[in-house]
Write a structure and sequence with these properties.
The chain is an alpha+beta fold and about 450 residues long. It has five helices and 16 strands. A hairpin with a 6-residue loop joins strand 10 and strand 11. The radius of gyration is 22 Å and the shape is globular.
Length: about 450
C-alpha cells in the first residue's frame, strides 16, 4: 500500500483548506438575493510545493565560540560528530543526529547527541554525506577560521519565515503578550537559550511597512536547541543555556546559519553561503570574528556558491546588495540568507529573490535604507536596493519580528537584537488540521444558512 509522507499530506491539507475557505467566502458573499451582510475576502491560492522525499530536515552551522565547535576557530576543533566521529567546526553544514547518517534528520526530543556532518568545511574532505567539503581554506592569507555565516540551497520560497538570534537578544521590550516561548522568554532576561533556538515570524513573509515598537506580529519558538525543558520542543543537539559571558567562550551554542527544510539532494547541488568578516563585534570585542572571507579572497558581504568538492566562486558581490558602500571593503558582514535562484547560476537583481541581514558592527547599520528611509539595524530583514548603487532596502523591519531596536528604543543594549539566521519555507504548521476543520464548519454553516433562508 502506498503511503503519503506526513509532510506532503500536510501540504495538501493546507492547500485544500485554503481552497475550502476561499470558496466558502465566495459562497457566503456573492449576491444571490440574500439580505444578510457580505464581507469582502481575498485569499490567494498557494502554489503546490514539489513532492518531497521522506528524508528532510534542518541543516545549520554553529558559531566557533560555543562548546560544540570547541571554543576556538579553525577546522576540526570541536566535539566529535555523531555520524563519522569527525570533529565539528564552525564551517560545517550540520543536521540533527537521530536516526543517524546520511541525513538530513528532523529535530528530536532531548537529550540528544552532537549533530552529524552533512558537508565538511575544508576543501577535499572525505567526511560528510556529500564529501569534498565547501572548499574553505583555513589560514590561506591570515586567520585560521572557517566560519560559515549564512546558508541557502537557492530554492527558498513560501509564506513562513524562520530565524535565529544570538545570546544578546532580548526581544522587543514593548511587545505585549504573544505566543510563548518566543525571543523574549528565551532571551537574555528569560531562559537564556534563544541563540540555539529557531523562531517563526507570526506575520506573512511579505514586504512590510514601518512598524512601531510593540505592534508587530511577533514570533514564536518552534525548534529548541537541545530538545529539553524549559522550552522543550524537538531539538537540534546543541548545548543550552547560553548566558552572556565576558571571556569570549560561550557556555552554550549559537546557531549561525539555517535551512529548515533541506533534502538529501540539496547538499549534492549548489550551496550558497557567506563567510565571516574581519571587523570585531562591538559587544564582544576582539578576537571574536574570524576574517574567513578575506582569508579566502572574498569579503563578508559577498554571497558565494559551490558544490561539495569544488572551490567556492563569487555569486553576488557585496556591492550588488548595497553593502560595503558606507565603510569600504569588508565593512559589512552578511549574516543570514534567503535565496530563490532563477536557475541560470548568475545573480540578477529583480530576477533572483534574495533576503539577508547584516551582523552587529557592520558599517551600513544606522544609514537610511532605500525603501522606508529607516536607519538600518542588525535585526532587519533586508533586500536589494531600490535603485542601483543604493543601500539595502528593509523588507521586514525588526520590530515586526518582535525584536528590539535602537530606533524604536525597544532594545536591551545600545545595540539592537541581531538576526543570525534566516529561512523561508512552506513547512506546514501543526494547525493545518484545525484550519481544515474550521473551513469545513464554515462551509457547513453557510450552506445551512442558505437552506434555512430559502
Amino acid at each position: 500500500m502506498m503511503t503519503i509522507p506526513t509532510r506532503n499530506l500536510n501540504y495538501f491539507v493546507r492547500w485544500l483548506t485554503t481552497g475550502i475557505m476561499s470558496i466558502t467566502a465566495l459562497w457566503c458573499t456573492t449576491g444571490l438575493g440574500q439580505d444578510y451582510p457580505s464581507v469582502s475576502v481575498v485569499v490567494d491560492f498557494p502554489e503546490l510545493p514539489p513532492i518531497l522525499p521522506n528524508n528532510f530536515g534542518p541543516t545549520f552551522s554553529v558559531d566557533f565560540q560555543g562548546p560544540t565547535a570547541g571554543f576556538n576557530p579553525g577546522a576540526g576543533t570541536g566535539v566529535s560528530d555523531s555520524f563519522y566521529g569527525a570533529h565539528i567546526d564552525e564551517g560545517q553544514i550540520l543536521t540533527p543526529a537521530k536516526p543517524g547518517p546520511p541525513g538530513p534528520n528532523a529535530p528530536s526530543p532531548g537529550p540528544l547527541p552532537a549533530p552529524g556532518i552533512m558537508v565538511d568545511s575544508v576543501s577535499g574532505s572525505p567526511v560528510g554525506t556529500a564529501p569534498g567539503g565547501l572548499g574553505i581554506l583555513p589560514g590561506l592569507l591570515m586567520e585560521t577560521g572557517v566560519e560559515l555565516d549564512a546558508l541557502s540551497y537557492g530554492r527558498d520560497r513560501g509564506s513562513r519565515l524562520y530565524f535565529s538570534v544570538d545570546e544578546f537578544a532580548g526581544g522587543d521590550v514593548f511587545l505585549g503578550p504573544t505566543a510563548t516561548p518566543n525571543v523574549s522568554s528565551e532571551g537574555i532576561h528569560g531562559n537564556q537559550e534563544a541563540s540555539a533556538d529557531v523562531f517563526t515570524y507570526l506575520g506573512p513573509a511579505v514586504s512590510t511597512a514601518a512598524t512601531s515598537a510593540g505592534s508587530g506580529p511577533g514570533n514564536r519558538a518552534v525548534i529548541d536547541g537541545n530538545g529539553l525543558a524549559p522550552h522543550g520542543s524537538p531539538g537540534l543537539g546543541l548545548v543550552e543555556p547560553n548566558p552572556v559571558t565576558a571571556d569570549g567562550r560561550d557556555r552554550g551554542d549559537n546557531l549561525d546559519a539555517l535551512d529548515i527544510d533541506t533534502t538529501r539532494e540539496d547538499v549534492f547541488g549548489k550551496i550558497f553561503f557567506s563567510l565571516d568578516s574581519k571587523f570585531s563585534d562591538p559587544l564582544e570585542g576582539s578576537p571574536v570574528n574570524t576574517a574567513t572571507a578575506i582569508s579566502n579572497g572574498f569579503v563578508g558581504g559577498d554571497v558565494l556558491v559551490t558544490v561539495a568538492g569544488a572551490m567556492p566562486m563569487l555569486y553576488a558581490p557585496a556591492t550588488s546588495l548595497g553593502l560595503d558602500l558606507v565603510g569600504g571593503e569588508d565593512s559589512d558582514d552578511l549574516d543570514s540568507l534567503i535565496l530563490l535562484e532563477n536557475g541560470d547560476g548568475k545573480f540578477t537583481p529583480h530576477r533572483d529573490f534574495i533576503l539577508f541581514s547584516v551582523r552587529r558592527g557592520s558599517a551600513v547599520i544606522g544609514s537610511p535604507d532605500s525603501r522606508l528611509g529607516l536607519p538600518i539595524e542588525e535585526g532587519d530583514v533586508l533586500t536589494i536596493p531600490t535603485e542601483t548603487g543604493g543601500l539595502p532596502a528593509i523588507f521586514i523591519p525588526a520590530e515586526s519580528l518582535g525584536l528590539g531596536t535602537i530606533r524604536s528604543k525597544s532594545a536591551e543594549f545600545q545595540f539592537g537584537d541581531e538576526l543570525d539566521a534566516l529561512d523561508l519555507s512552506m513547512v506546514p504548521e501543526p494547525s493545518s488540521m484545525v484550519l481544515t476543520l474550521l473551513g469545513i464548519l464554515t462551509w457547513f454553516g453557510c450552506f445551512r444558512r442558505r437552506t434555512v433562508k430559502r
